[in-house]
Amino acid sequence: MKEIHDKGMYYVPIVDAGTAYRPHSNYTLFEAAEANGAFIKGADGKTLIGSVWPNEAAFVDWSSEHAGEFWQAGLDHLNSQLPFDGLWLDMNEASNFCRGVCYDEQREASPVKYKLPYVPTGRDLEEGSLSLDGKHANGYTELDMHSTYSFHEIKASHEWFQAKKKRTMIISRSSQSGVGKYGSRWLGDNFSLELFMGYSVTGIITSSMYGMPLAGVDICGFTFDTTPELCARWTVLGTFYPFSRNHNAYGWIPQEPYQ
After folding, report:
1. Per-residue pLDDT for 199 more than 90?
2. Residues 110, 233: one domain?
3. Is there a single domain that holds both residue 169 and residue 206?
4. Does the pLDDT of residue 257 top 90, yes or no?
């Protein structure tokens, strides 16, 4: 990190929404947050356990009075080990590799998803997401609170930067109107196709209309193999984005121009 900073460069780590669920393992930040009720709860009244990159994971309940305290203490701890200059907030819809709940004992006897009068997109709203029955400290369920997750996460992160007298640099995958006051976004996973290069323009302009002027996409595409022509054209287009980066999924051909 010192070498990077000495060269006038900056470092932005990925920080995902799911906190590793590790009770009784000397993970003091997690244990204090769980004791203070800072995580979303399941039907059994215990911390709702989902699954993301650390496998079992808990998710911040932003309606809890201790949520911001936990999040900012975590950023303090990370920064003490790895002095960073910005945050890339990913998987913050929040995403979940289980469909709703991972364990039956945390499932509601009569799940709310079967009672909805209207289901946007017509698909299971718990696919890749948390249980809609997840309980929040303010008395609401995840059904009510889902779309506010990234807003509160970005706001808490922005407040950390401000308290440290640092310039806020946050890019988020999930977003909501009003987020532009505290951070920025990219449009998430896209595809190495001309169609998605076209979509990027309307996506960025729409984000600006929603009050998020600093928005961008993964140039050359994230999923599938790009081509030299597509990557070159997309790189040129990317110079006109408010924000752009070359970002590639694992397993596809390299996209660095020198490759």
Report:
1. yes
2. no
3. no
4. no
Q: Which of 56, 61, 93, 126 is catalytic?
A: 93
Domain extent, residue 113, equals: 2-186
Q: 126 an active-site residue? A: no
We report the CATH number of the domain holding residue 57 as 3.20.20.80
Alpha carbons within 13 A on the beta-carbon side of 170? 32
CB 39 within 8 Å of CB 59: yes
Given the residues 90, 126, 133, 153, the one annotated as active site: 90
Catalytic-residue membership of 142: no
| Predicted local distance difference test score (pLDDT) of residue 104 | 96
- Of 168, 186, 204, the residue at which a domain comes to its end is 186
- 51 and 101 housed in the same domain: yes
| Domain co-membership, 131 together with 249 | no
Q: What is the dihedral of CA 13, 18, 23, 27, to 10 degrees?
A: 20
> Residues 135-161: pLDDT tens digits?
999 999 999 999 999 999 999 999 999
Q: Which amino acid is it at 7? A: K
Residue with tokens 């998020």: 212
Residues 141 and 211 in one domain: no
Average of per-residue pLDDT across 114-130: 94
DSSP H helices in the chain: 2-6, 28-35, 67-81, 142-145, 149-163, 194-209, 228-238
Q: What integer best gives the mean pLDDT of the chain?
A: 96
Q: How many domains does the chain have?
A: 2
Q: Do 167 and 244 have their domain in common?
A: no
Strands, E assignment, the chain: 14-16, 18-20, 50-52, 55-59, 87-90, 170-172, 184-186, 215-219, 243-246
- Verdict on whether the full-model pTM lies above 0.70: yes
